[in-house]
Amino acid sequence: MKCKKQVDIKDGKEVTMKNGRKAMKGKCGACSTSVFRILGKST
Distance between CA 38 and CA 34 in Å, rounded? Predict the structure, then answer.
């Protein structure tokens, strides 16, 4: 079961999606399920 609240990303890595946007991929700090968060545009 995934956490329904915003959690800290553990072991996060910055990845680039195929459309060029940046994102963080890692594990949930509370339950260790995978977490994917899209980052803002870099300026």
Answer: 14
Cα 11 to Cα 42: distance, rounded to the nearest angstrom: 22
Q: Where are the domains of the chain?
A: 1-43
pLDDT digits (tens), the chain, 43 positions: 777 788 888 899 999 999 989 999 999 888 888 889 999 876 5
d(CA 7, CA 2): 11
Helices marked H in the chain? none
Q: Which of 22, 39, 31 is nearest to 4 (CA)?
A: 31
pTM of the model: 0.69
Side chain identity at 42, as an amino acid letter? S
